[in-house]
Write a structure and sequence with these properties.
Blueprint: E1 2-5, E2 8-15, E3 18-24, H1 33-46, E4 54-59, H2 71-76, H3 80-99, E5 103-108, E6 112-113, H4 115-122, E7 125-129, E8 134-135, H5 149-156, H6 158-166, H7 174-179, E9 185-187, H8 190-205, H9 209-219, H10 226-240, H11 244-255
Parallel strand pairs: 3-4, 4-5, 5-7, 6-8, 7-9
Antiparallel strand pairs: 1-2, 2-3
Helix pairs in contact: 1-3, 3-4, 3-10, 4-5, 5-6
Length: 256
């Protein structure tokens, strides 16, 4: 099924218990609010579909996995309420990934920035290919990785998360991300990565759904307060994006 959103799409395909959710945006798979909402809706829906045994979340193309928040929408924010609503889109997506009873495999074929790192961290198992470098660029545009921070810190630890958050201009390569646990596997190319995703997803599709749901719940124990926490973090980002510093920085980034 293909769902068109402004300048992009979300496509789903169910095959032998494996639900593939693919998102696309022409600006390096960046995430405007409509795309965030569509992905969140699909993840929520699959949790109530008994035919779905496991989820593979991927983006289209072989370049960037996700460039994070849409700069156009960031610049369109005019007040704190609009800022809260935009960043709440990331909060809702991460929380839906967290609460979904199905295990989620993320296919990371290219660079991850900002919210893209958050998606990789919120997945239960991320499989990447060489070139899937990571960067949390939020501080460089005057915001800070507040919404994705809990998911990233949970996956890679406070020290590694702090390094990413503080040095917002520096890329860390895919091997760095694998060593710190953001990626469960790292492969030399797209073909090898996809072979591993196919192997694992089809193995999980034949595993006990009740056992997988219980296992996932154990993985996420201690995050029950995230429904409130991530919205609080969204409010912080929503205020900061209105600053003159942030406006100027986003304009500069968009021109690159």
């Amino acid at each position: 099924m293909l769902k068109q959103v402004k300048d992009g799409h979300v496509k789903t395909e169910l095959h032998n218990g494996v639900l593939t959710i693919e998102f696309f945006h022409p600006q390096s798979n960046s995430l405007p609010g409509s795309l965030l909402e569509a992905i969140t809706h699909e993840i929520h829906s699959c949790g109530n579909d008994h035919e779905v045994k496991v989820v593979v979340l991927r983006s289209a193309g072989e370049k960037a996995f996700c460039a994070g928040a849409s700069f156009d929408e960031l610049l369109a924010i005019e007040n704190a309420a609009q800022g809260l609503e935009f960043f709440s889109g990331f909060a809702r997506l991460i929380n839906e990934m967290r609460k979904c009873s199905r295990l989620i495999i993320a296919r990371i074929q290219g660079k991850c920035v900002g919210g893209g790192v958050g998606i990789a961290a919120a997945a239960d198992y991320a499989i990447a290919a060489d070139g899937a470098d990571v960067k949390l660029s939020e501080l460089a545009v005057g915001i800070g990785p507040f919404v994705v921070g809990p998911a990233v810190e949970r996956k890679i630890g406070l020290a590694a998360f702090s390094s990413l958050a503080i040095d917002a201009a520096m890329w860390r390569d895919a091997e760095w991300a694998r060593r710190r646990g953001l990626y469960s596997e790292l492969h030399g190319g797209i073909v090898e990565m996809d072979e591993s995703i196919h192997r694992l997803s089809h193995s999980l599709a034949h595993s006990n759904p009740e056992a997988m749901a219980a296992l996932k719940a154990s993985f996420w124990k201690g995050t029950e307060h995230w429904d409130e926490l991530l919205l609080e973090r969204a409010a912080v980002s929503g205020r900061l994006v209105l600053s003159d510093f942030s406006r100027t920085a986003i304009h500069k980034f968009r021109k690159k």
